[in-house]
Amino acid sequence: MTVRTAAATALYDVPGPKTRARHRIYGLAATAVLLALVVWIAYLLVDTGQFAYTKWLPFEYAGIQGLLLRGLGNTLKAFALAAVLSLVLGAALATGRLSDHAPVRVLSTLVVEFFRAMPLLVMIFFIFVALKVQPLPALVAGLTLYNGSVLAEVFRSGVNSVERGQKEAAYALGLRKTQVMTHVLAPQAVRAMLPAIISQLVVALKDTSLGFLITYEEFLHAGKLIASNLDYDLPFIPVVMVISPIYIGMCMLLSGVAQWVARWERRSPKTGAVEVAAAGPGTLLPDGAPPTAPEP
Questions:
Q1: How large is the angle between the packed helices 236-267 and 62-97, nearest 10 degrees?
Q2: Closest listed residue to residue 194, CA positions, set 135, 242, 266
Q3: Fewer CB within 10 Å: C terminus or N terminus of the chain?
Q4: Which residues of the chain have pLDDT under 70?
């Protein structure tokens, strides 16, 4: 407990009573400003009649609900394909960038830098228009090339963040490079990489909305069709108020899955064994406890 407290307060002074009171005042003031902003926005929506029953009545129609559900399903389909392919492509490019062979390393670097610098919308339009690819494959291909290139740098940085001595010790024990990467580097790097990976997958989920520009019938495209349908006289604001919370909820769900995976990794006996092997005699783990071997 003493070690933990010293580590937590080594970089700053513990705030005193006056500082804590001042911080509470700052927090209350910021909360009041945010509440005032929310009230003002709600007043504008009510004043312009956005909560009128007639404007929300079309959402009770089975046709509108079916259109939104189909759009949501198409969004999740594009995201699932793009997420899996991006992870595979990112791992392959990262392996190439970490290769000992110069041609493979240079080629992987060129691919990563090119697709990271290329605007995503340009790639999607090029694949859809120039290559005459169907909307779903064009959208998934663009998302995969861009996000896979970004994830390649995440994977490479995560592996390089592991202490070099552990890699050298593994080679000294006679392990091959594949074994070193699988059993020593990757288990330790995955925890550092996980937040960045999830953040990039959230970006990929939101970028699926670009599919409506190439007529892919995803969630935003369905909302656009509903808002532009004069037969229902449905304005754009109610559609946004329905679609936006669903997008936010999906992103929060993805972040929740990431936190669950992180907790599972911390409880994993394999990960615990790697941490114990990495910690030297007398070394304290991040929670302030001495390293102990995991139970069989």
A1: 40
A2: 266
A3: C
A4: 1-12, 230-235, 265-266, 268-296
